[in-house]
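QA checklist item 7 of 12: single-chain prediction sanity check.
[x] sequence parsed
[x] length recorded as 278
[x] structure emitted
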Amino acid sequence: MKIGFHVSIAGSIDEAVDKAVAENYEIFQIFTRNPRVWQVIPLNPGEVGRFREKVKRYRIQPIFGHMPYLPNLASSRDGVYKRSMESLTIELKRCVELRIPYLVTHLGSHLGAGKAFGRRRMIDAINDSFSKIKGEVILLLENTAGTRNSMGSSFEDIKRVVDGIIHSDRIGVCFDICHAFAAGYDLRTEQAVNTVIERFEEVLGWERLKLVHLNGSKGGLNAHKDRHEHIGLGKIGMDGFRNILHSKFREIPLILETPLDERKQNLENLKKVRELAR
């Protein structure tokens, strides 16, 4: 079982590797740049070299990149959509340079234009980026909590996007536990967890699942609220996470995106996950 956290790149991008090693993570996830702005500063060649060297030296694999916050690949606003397409292409290229094998993206919001419209936008954006970036980076589509106008809250919604991608071998899935629970997938009992796994296998195929975001949920089942919680403290509960960690999900790399607050530190969440997994 491989476990890690989303790690800050503050300082320089190669220092993210040092932070992951210091905290005893087996894997980690990063933004390759400031995720809150559109502006992109080119990668520093020296930092890229050090990043690659440290990853090789410490044997931390796999590493996951994550798309910034602003892009919306399903947007009905032409200006935002164009910038989002450009952002996806840039992020894929940066992952190629850094030798990061996976890039996670949210499916976005159609902003009221309808799921069919949003799906077409997403498919076109991904196909366009794949035609420009020929590297081996796999794009992971992350399921959503089902908030208003959001795309990809069900396995079937994700499958419809996958079916439209020309190079679908470059598409995988990131399964977010909090989002799934908020969207109506019960994960509290052993039977419920196994039912979700069976449905995922039936609709998408287990081989598509490359990453699990292991997050508690402040909101209840089918609440459609994307509010992450510490492991065991939210509505999924301690028994829920014990059942998750004793299922096939433990075979998949696990990244925690738990809150940063005074109640629990990352290492406490990490310790709890390892304890429940035993």
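[x] summary fact logged: The longest helix spans residues 78-98.
[ ] second reviewer sign-off
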